Amino acid sequence: MTEDDLKSRCLAKAFDELDSGRISELSLRAIARDLDVSHQAPYRHFKSKDDLLTALSCECFKHFSEHLNARTRGENEWEGLRLMGLAYIRYAVSYPHRYRLMFNEHHNGFALTGEALKQAQHSFLLLRDQLGLIAKLNQSAQHIDPQADAMFIWSSLHGLVSLLENPLTDKLPVRESVLKNLVDHVLDRIGTGIQPRSDA
Q1: Tens of pLDDT along 133-189?
Q2: Is 38 helix (H, G, I), strand (E, B) or coil?
Q3: I want to staple 161 with a disulfide (CB 3.0 to 4.6 A). Which of 92, 128, 129, 200 is the partner?
């Protein structure tokens, strides 16, 4: 086994643990045992569990960005923005443990640095650049602030994801139809918030 193979296998095993919801049980010694290598072998690539989690987060953000980029583009830049929001939600729902790792670094006790931070920033820049494209191509959308509005959308989607995965949401005193159409409603409201103003 080459060193590149060992590193890839360590990350693959870490992904298995993450996707199975067992990330808290993850350890470099356990990975070494499962891969049938010496307990010191993984330390040639990862200094600690936190180092492995940072590398894992980097790969998660890469996957997240690829998912956003692979979305259907839509017939125009406005529809493309909505489809990006939908892709964001779908990723969070499809890969809940990866999503939590990506966006709860401080809670997990490690910090994103280097390439991991770069990949996290890239996923945000995809949204900012889409808003910049809208402002560039639409004279009536000059009120859009790509950075500020990207933060508005990002925070709205993050809050929506939190509601979708919280069991309390299903017990709130709201109509069943509200919960059923929650994603579409939030995306519609986001669109309303940044669409061209009537007095523009």
Answers
A1: 999 998 888 899 999 999 999 999 999 999 999 999 999 999 999 999 999 999 999
A2: coil
A3: 92
